[in-house]
Amino acid sequence: MNSDAIGSKGPEMQQRSVNKGIGWGGKSLKEMWEEKERLYKETGCYYGLEELPLMKGDPLKSEVLASRLLAAAVAGRETSRMISASPLVRDVAELAVAIYTPEGDCIIQSTGIIIHIPLMGQVIEWMIKENYEEEVGINDGDCFTSNDNYIAGMHPADFYDIMPVFWEGELVGWVGTVIMEPEQGALAPGCMPSGATERFVEGLRFSAEKTAVNDRHLKAFERRIRLGCRLSDFVLLDRKGALAADIKVRQAIKKIIEEFGIGYYMAGIRELIEMERRAQLKRVKTRTVPGRFHSPSTFEIYLSRTIAPPHHAIDRITLVPWDFNIKPDGKYSLDFDGAGSWGWHSSNTSPSALLGAACLMLTQTIAYDGKANQGTFLALEMNTPYDTFVNPSSPNVASGMFFSWPIMGGAIWLGQQSRAFFCRGFVEEFRAPTPLGVGASGVSALAGRTHFGMDFGFQMMEAPGFIAGGAFAIRDGVLSDVIFLPDADMGNAEVWELVLPLLWMGRKFIPDTCGWGKYRSGRSVMGTYMVYKTALLSLDTTSMAHCEKIGGNSGVFGGYPGHGGFGKVIANANTMELIAQRKPLAHGEGYPGVGDLEQNISGDLIIPLANSYVKGVFRHGDFIQGYMGTGGGVGDPIKRDLSLVKEDLDSGVITIDRCRRMYCVDARYDEIAEEWVIEEKKTAELREKKRKERLAKGMPAKEWWQKRRQDIISGKLPPLLKEMYNDSLAKGQRWPGEFRAFWQLPRDFTF
Amino acid sequence: MGAVSYPKEVIRDLVAGKLPWAEVKSIISGYKDDDRFDKYIEVLQEKMSWKERILLPLTDELHVVQKGIERIVKCSCGYEFGDYRENWKLKALIHVRDTQEEIDELYPYPCKPAPEYCEIREHYCPGCGTQLEVDVVPFGYPAVFDFLPDLDVFYREWLARPLPQQKEFKDLTYELTRRWAEESQSK
Question: With a cut of 0.95, is the ipTM above it?
Answer without folding.
Answer: yes
